[in-house]
Write a structure and sequence with these properties.
The complex is a heterotrimer of chains A (303), B (423) and C (281). Chain A has 303 residues and is α+β, with helices and mostly antiparallel strands. Helix content of chain A is 15%, strand content 34%. In chain A, the strands form five sheets. In chain A, strands 14-1-20-17-18 form a five-stranded mixed beta sheet, with no helix packed on it. In chain A, strands 2, 13, 15, 16 and 19 form a five-stranded antiparallel beta sheet that branches. In chain A, strand 8 (177-181) and strand 9 form a beta hairpin. The longest helix of chain A has 18 residues, at 2-19. Chain B has helices spanning 2-10, 15-29, 42-52, 58-72, 94-100, 115-119, 121-124, 163-172, 187-216, 234-258, 275-290, 297-300, 315-318, 325-333, 358-367, 390-402; strands spanning 105-106, 112-113. In chain B, a hairpin with a 5-residue loop joins strand 1 and strand 2 (112-113). In chain B, helix 15 (358-367) crosses helix 16. Chain C is an alpha+beta fold. Helices cover 35% and strands 22% of the residues of chain C. Chain C has four helices and twelve strands. Chain C has helices at residues 4-25, 44-74, 91-121, 252-266, and strands spanning 125-127, 140-141, 146-151, 154-159, 172-175, 177-181, 185-192, 197-201, 206-210, 216-221, 226-232, 245-250. Chain C has a five-stranded mixed beta sheet. Chain C has a five-stranded mixed beta sheet with strand order 6-12-11-8-9, with helices on one face. In chain C, strands 1-2 form a two-stranded antiparallel sheet. In chain C, helix 1 (4-25) packs antiparallel against helix 2 (44-74) and helix 2 runs antiparallel to helix 3 (91-121). Chain C is elongated, with a radius of gyration of 27 Å. Classes of the chains: A alpha+beta (303), B mainly alpha (423), C alpha+beta (281). Chains in contact: A-B, B-C. Chains A and B meet through helix 1, helix 2, helix 3, strand 8 and strand 9 of A and helix 2, helix 3, helix 4, helix 9 and helix 10 of B.
Chain lengths: 303, 423, 281
């Protein structure tokens, strides 16, 4: 009998050992193998046919009726936060001449609240030709875009261009830089750019969102780039204004709005009424020859 | 009466019984051996959630796990995606993957099984996330394969490694890290492990792309439709399936191309190994090292001790946004390891992680090192007069290779010898 | 129970003898169980010492087992009515069982001195010193041909190269794959990069702990070409089990050719990708 007593306790401890391993890691979502198996059949079987239609821009029911312009201005409402001061711990003579403070350009807000470097672009895929795409905005532009750096600052904080355009990455500083691009769909690029010289980068594909540009030698340097197929994009100027001309009118267009700090902007006030832009998306239908003006108020709490 | 009997029973517990019970209890409290399972990339999902100011719903996360299981199977039963228009053949072989998958065992012919779990898993983890049980104790941390990026390879920064690049790492190990050499393993076993690493990389990359995709979904939308919703909805159903296959194709494509992208290096002309030519080349290399074109000195430091730039991070760590303590603490809670700065290599140690052959160093300099701040040097082209020529790179290689033998101070370090050895 | 216990104790010397005989004969479950083949000219003495101590302890072990059995059998309480006798001890017996082991131990100590010195102290001499007599203080000791550095969890290897000096640019580096010439004295310099390891070459009877911060030498004279094991014989961490290497003993010409080939690969200064239709592996 006394063996029984002991073995019960030992068995209980054994069960605990087998079953109870209180994992400290967060819960994992395990696949449901039955679902996965049926999914596998779908993925390996039906994938072929559906493919074609998805990638080609959907021919929509409506056809554009002419050309229109979207313009506007982004302003920060309420408290305007001050820009952060960057730590310049290298090449101070060049990067912070006279020991001046170098401010972060993560957000640049003008005296009247204008928010610079906001990206607005048409996010849906449009056919490349008329009446969808204006000849002036057509893909295939090939003129070189200059991306310069001086006093350890990328002179263009947010560079938007067509994916066919080569970028001349210049260094106008007396010190060497290295410029590294970390795109999602384009080839990566990371090269030392000696002082007063340049490198050429040829993008290949369209990106869905801006990708970061950095310099490993001067880690405080930062910028973003985005490559788009056509020219339906704009970056706000120092006063927060932007303009995208030659948009197809009479059809619903989907735009996306991005800013470095806020990412895709979600909650804003447009022309006085508040709007929720899910994942930074908003839709507008313009009429021919119209210039639609958007007065966008961005809450200061986002910064 | 009752107390007495219990006491008498307890008195029969011997020391050995108590030890056995104690061990079992300790085991229960500590660790058992749960079923091997791929873990979701929770850190990346969290990052996407923060960036997109959203949060993944349970069905969305379940979809990700199910899609991955559909494409890649489970650790015990791996599978390779069969995507229309993509031939995985030249890249990964399922039979070789299977040899490394599953539990450690051997079949009737003595063919080993479960090689990954035998040799790799304790550092690199079941999922290839570099989060095995020993990972936290290592410096540098083991590689997380899920970005599909590897540091020491013959292709240009940003491209995938070739098959031979991965194999070399298994063969020679990574000197100066905890990655040992697996040279004494059978060639077949090494080959199988290379395939398994690629398999885990592809899986990890697809997982990340799925997370990217989920962020873009509308509220309540999912990556796939349930089979029950297919009826009358075939176009939407197939559209989603096609999109997933497109993602896999996009992930596989650069891997397929990589084998042809190894950067060729023109055989160095003869005569450079004569001491005089070498001394000249080393001097030229030194000049370039400190010059503003190659700019090595900026990071590797004035004495090449790797102390020029010590507060940067590698790309795997940058994912944890170490500059944002609030985000970082969330990632750490999900199991990420404490971020550490990446140190430029101390070139005086004579330890070369990616290999010591001149061509290895040439690739590092000409291609840059993926996942790290090390850039490629600019090459001389018609547009870029200031760039370097291959001979310039060879000179930097020569200089770097001479550094361990150039004494910084004049003292020779003397190791204590066994004194009686001369008896 | 009766004499059950004494019989149980009898099984100890019986099984012990069986294991001993089977192992020496190399049959049954004890095949290849004993020491691996010795391929070191200097290793024989180690084996002799080992076998001597084994026989000695084996005889004592079996004798003790038999004596235990015999006493238990003979003086089993159920069969013996005679009461136990107490005595004050025997000087003669005590002297016998003190002096015998002492003499044995002393014998082993003296017997092994030379073996120890040969293995650990008398490094092969390259040439006699200025006095022209080998075996004196000023002898020039043979330089190590290779340095093996233990590190968690592999053996890093560094050949002295053409100039025969370790630590110069012409060194040949490797890992886990040690090649050495056969039929000549070989000196290996051993070090550790991190923790205590033990450099163990079972086939040449070389086993030496490597201590971080300390440089030591081991040597042997291989006499049979082949591929042998390198293992770590000191628990050095969780990956101790995988700290395996292989040692290839080969003729001097083959060794020199191999080393030259390794050096050429190490100095490789050109790369052309494989072209065309070559297979994946």
């Amino acid at each position: 009998m006394r063996f029984g007593w002991k073995s019960v306790v030992l068995a209980a401890a054994g069960c605990l050992a087998g079953a109870g391993c209180g994992s400290k890691l967060p819960v994992n979502v395990s696949p449901d193998l039955a679902v996965a198996t049926s999914l596998r059949t779908s993925l390996e079987g039906a994938g072929g046919e559906g493919g074609g239609e998805e990638t080609a821009p959907a021919a929509e029911a409506a056809t554009p009726t002419g050309w229109a312009t979207l313009s506007g201005v982004f302003k920060v409402a309420g408290d305007r936060p001050a820009a952060a001061i960057l730590t310049v711990d290298k090449d101070q003579g060049v990067c912070a001449p006279g020991g001046r403070q170098v401010l972060s350009q993560e957000y640049v807000i003008g005296p009247d609240g204008g928010l610079a470097n906001v990206l607005v672009f048409v996010s849906q895929k449009l056919p490349d030709d008329e009446p969808w795409t204006h000849p002036d905005s057509k893909p295939g532009k090939a003129d070189e875009v200059i991306f310069d750096q001086k006093e350890c600052v990328f002179l263009t904080r947010l560079l938007a261009l067509q994916s066919s355009q080569p970028i001349r990455i210049k260094n106008s500083d007396p010190v060497g830089h290295n410029t590294s691009l970390k795109p999602k769909k384009n080839p990566a690029y990371d090269q030392t750019i000696p002082s007063n010289s340049a490198g050429i980068y040829q993008p290949k594909a369209e990106e869905d969102q801006p990708f970061p540009v950095a310099c490993a030698i001067h880690p405080w340097m930062k910028a973003y780039m985005i490559t788009r197929r056509n020219s339906y994009f704009a970056v706000t100027k120092a006063d927060g204004s932007f303009e995208i001309p030659n948009l197809p009118a009479g059809v619903e267009l989907e735009f996306r709005v991005w800013q470095e700090r806020t990412n895709f902007m979600q909650e804003v006030t447009v022309n006085g009424s508040s709007e929720k832009w899910a994942k930074g998306r908003f839709k507008r239908t313009l009429t021919a020859n119209e210039t639609m003006n958007l007065e966008v108020q961005v809450p200061g709490s986002l910064f | 009466m009752r107390t007495e009997s219990i006491r008498s029973r307890l008195s029969h517990w011997t020391v050995r019984d108590a030890m056995a019970a104690g061990l079992l209890l300790a085991f229960a409290a500590g660790c058992g051996s749960p079923q091997a399972e791929f873990r979701g990339n929770l850190v990346y999902v969290k990052r996407k959630e923060i960036e997109g100011q959203t949060s993944f719903t349970r069905p969305q996360s379940a979809d990700m796990a199910n899609i991955l299981a559909a494409y890649f199977g489970t650790p015990d039963d791996p599978h390779l995606p069969k995507v229309p228009g993509v031939d995985m053949g030249p890249l990964v072989d399922i039979e070789r993957v299977k040899m490394s998958a599953g539990k450690v065992a051997s079949d009737k012919t003595g063919q080993p099984q479960g090689l990954y779990r035998e040799h790799c898993v304790h550092c690199h983890g079941i999922t290839g996330d570099g989060l095995g049980p020993t990972a936290a104790f290592l410096n540098p941390y083991p590689r997380d394969y899920r970005m599909g990026r590897f540091k020491f390879k013959s292709t240009v920064k940003g491209q995938r490694p070739t098959h031979d690049d991965l194999k070399k790492i298994l063969h020679d190990g990574v000197a100066g890290t905890a990655m040992p050499s697996f040279k004494v393993l059978d060639q077949d076993e090494v080959e199988s492990l290379v395939h398994y690493v690629k398999y885990l990389s592809l899986r990890g990359e697809v997982e990340r792309r799925l997370a990217d995709e989920v962020v873009e979904l509308d509220e309540g939308e999912r990556l796939v439709l349930d089979a029950s919703e297919k009826e009358g909805n075939a176009e939407a159903f197939n559209g989603k399936i096609a999109r997933l296959n497109e993602i896999v194709a996009e992930v596989v494509q650069p891997w397929l191309e990589a084998d042809g992208l190894a950067v060729p290096i023109e055989q160095r002309s003869a005569g450079w190994d004569d001491p005089e030519a070498m001394a000249k080349s080393v001097a030229r290399g030194r000049e370039l090292f400190y010059g503003s074109i190659a700019n090595c000195v900026k990071c590797h430091g004035d004495s090449a001790l790797g102390d020029g730039q010590i507060n940067d991070y590698d790309d795997w760590t940058k994912e944890l946004e170490p500059a944002k303590p609030q985000a970082l603490s969330q990632y750490l809670a999900l199991g990420a390891l404490d971020p550490r700065n990446i140190r430029p290599r101390n070139l005086r140690l004579g330890i070369y992680r990616g290999g010591r052959r001149p061509i290895d160093l040439y690739w590092r300099i000409a291609n840059g090192i993926d996942g790290t701040p090390m850039p490629a040097v600019p090459m001389k082209t018609p547009e870029n007069e200031k760039g370097l020529t291959p001979d310039d790179i060879w000179s930097i290689v020569d200089y770097v290779r001479s550094l361990p033998y150039e004494s910084l101070s004049k003292q020779d370090r003397q190791l204590p010898q066994m004194t009686r050895e001369r008896l | 129970m009766g004499r059950f216990w004494s019989l149980l104790f009898l099984s100890v010397p019986i099984l012990g003898t069986l294991a001993f005989v089977l192992a020496i004969a190399g049959v049954g479950p004890f095949r290849d169980h004993w020491l691996p083949e010795n391929v070191n000219d200097y290793g024989g003495v180690i084996d002799q010492l080992f076998m001597f101590i084994l026989y000695l302890t084996g005889v004592i072990f079996i004798g003790t087992g038999v004596a235990l059995f015999w006493f238990m059998w003979k003086y089993d309480a159920e069969k013996n009515a005679k009461p136990a006798v107490y005595m004050h001890g025997s000087h003669a017996l005590e002297i016998v069982w003190s002096v015998l082991p002492a003499a044995t131990l002393l014998f082993i100590a003296i017997y092994q001195m030379n073996a120890w010195a040969d293995q650990k102290m008398r490094r092969p001499v390259a040439e006699a010193g200025p006095d022209g007599i080998e075996g004196t203080e000023d002898d020039v000791l043979q330089a190590p041909i290779v340095e093996v550095t233990g590190r968690q969890f592999e053996w890093r290897i560094r050949y002295a190269g053409k100039d025969n000096v370790i630590g110069t640019p012409d060194d040949v580096h490797g890992v886990n794959d040690l090649h050495l010439p056969v039929n000549e004295d070989v000196v290996i310099q051993i070090k550790s990069m991190d923790v205590l390891h033990s450099f163990f070459l079972p086939h040449v009877r070389v086993k030496q702990d490597v201590v971080p911060g300390m440089k030591q030498f081991v040597w042997f004279h291989g006499n049979k070409s082949g591929i042998y094991d390198i293992v770590c014989a000191e628990l050095c961490g969780w990956g101790h089990y995988k700290m395996r290497g292989k040692m290839t003993l080969e003729s001097r010409e083959k060794f020199d050719a191999w080393l030259a080939e390794q050096y050429a690969e190490q100095e490789r200064s050109g790369f052309q990708p494989k072209t065309g239709a070559d297979e994946n592996d």
